[in-house]
Amino acid sequence: MSKDRSTQPSVLPTQTGNKLPLAQGGYFMYSAQPLHILLFVLPALIVYELGTTGIIGGGGVSAKLEAQDMLVRFFNLFGVLGLHLPAIALVVILLVQHLLSKASWKIQPAVLLAMIAESAFLTVPLIVLGVLVEPLVPMMMSQPEIVSSPALNDTLQRIFLAIGAGLYEEMLFRLVLIALLHFIFVDALGFKHKTGIIIAVVLSSLAFAWHHNEVVSPTGINWRLAIFYTLAGAYFAMLFIARGFGIAVGAHLMYDLLVLVVMPWIQGQES
Q1: 235: Cβ contacts below 8 Å, ≥ 6 apart
Q2: How confident is the model at residue 161 (pLDDT cuts 50, 70, 90)?
Q3: Does residue 74 surpass a pLDDT of 80?
Q4: Is 220 inside any structural domain?
Q5: Which of 46, 178, 211, 212 is such that its CA lies 20 to 30 A from the CA of 222?
Q6: CA distances from 123 to 14, 26, 134, 209, 227 (A)
Q7: What is the C-alpha separation between 35 and 16, in angstroms, rounded?
Q8: Are 158 and 139 in contact (CB under 8 A)?
Q9: Domain range for 92
């Protein structure tokens, strides 16, 4: 197998969007640039990190996201300690990528607003998928994997968890894992770029499904949930590759906000 270097775009999600035909100018180009991705995710990143310290919400987030914990443990392997390291690393990665891209530092506020609208629109396929697989699945997916037991009856806690899951599950399973798998299969093993992307999408989607504890229990595998999480992981992976890290985070975050915060609130009003 030979390496397809001439046509091989970067697998990093902050750059792949620029390679698409629709992304040669205007919104699709700007929304895939690291600078606008950083500005898009930065408010959510700040809110969540302040929530974990208790600056927002008093006592702070009582749950510890497993995806964030795995990222922290990854940094610990290199002797670097700190709960906020994943957030710092994300900011640094995006800034370095923008510097290397030599793109303009001019900010387009309209692009950021359009990214919010696009992310909201892209939650619709996930809702439809949940209904098709099993009506109760969307509510079950609203529970991000956690290390410690949270007070999920607290609306503010749910908001923090939705934001954290959108950020750190995308960072772990898309930004880190897809890039790592692409490096292994394309750069190390010599697979063609498209083949490497397909393998990375499939394996990262399976890992995303396995990450959710309710898929595998002492009684066996819940195949409906396994199918849902795998397809949802593949959907986020395709958004990540086609539209960039920012849109993947936005769609994931807004979906979690919908099922963790909005739907319980509506149900509470009806009861």
Answers
A1: 125, 126, 129
A2: confident
A3: no
A4: yes
A5: 178
A6: 20, 23, 17, 18, 18
A7: 14
A8: no
A9: 13-270
Tokens 């035909």: give the residue. Answer: 21
And the tokens for 160? Answer: 């923090």
C-alpha distances in Å from residue 227, one per residue of 12, 71, 95: 26, 25, 36
Residue 1 within a domain: no
**11-25, 76-90, 159-173, 249-263 — which is least confidently predicted?**
11-25
Place of tokens 């394309």: 186
Which has the closest alpha carbon to 60: 171, 161, 169? 161
User: Which CA distances in Å does 90 have to 118, 204, 225?
Assistant: 22, 19, 30
User: Is residue 259 included in any domain, yes or no?
Assistant: yes
* pLDDT attached to residue 75: 72
57-84 burial code (b ≥16 CB/10 A, e <16): beeebbbbbbbbbbbbeeeeeeeeeeee
Q: Cβ(151)–Cβ(157) under 8 Å?
A: yes
User: Is residue 2, in this structure, part of any structural domain at all?
Assistant: no
pLDDT digits (tens, 9 = 90+) for 188-198: 999 999 999 99
CB 166, CB 119: distance < 8 Å? no
Q: What is the pLDDT of residues 98-148, one digit of tens each?
A: 999 999 999 999 999 999 999 999 999 999 998 888 654 544 444 555 544
Total domains present in the chain: 1
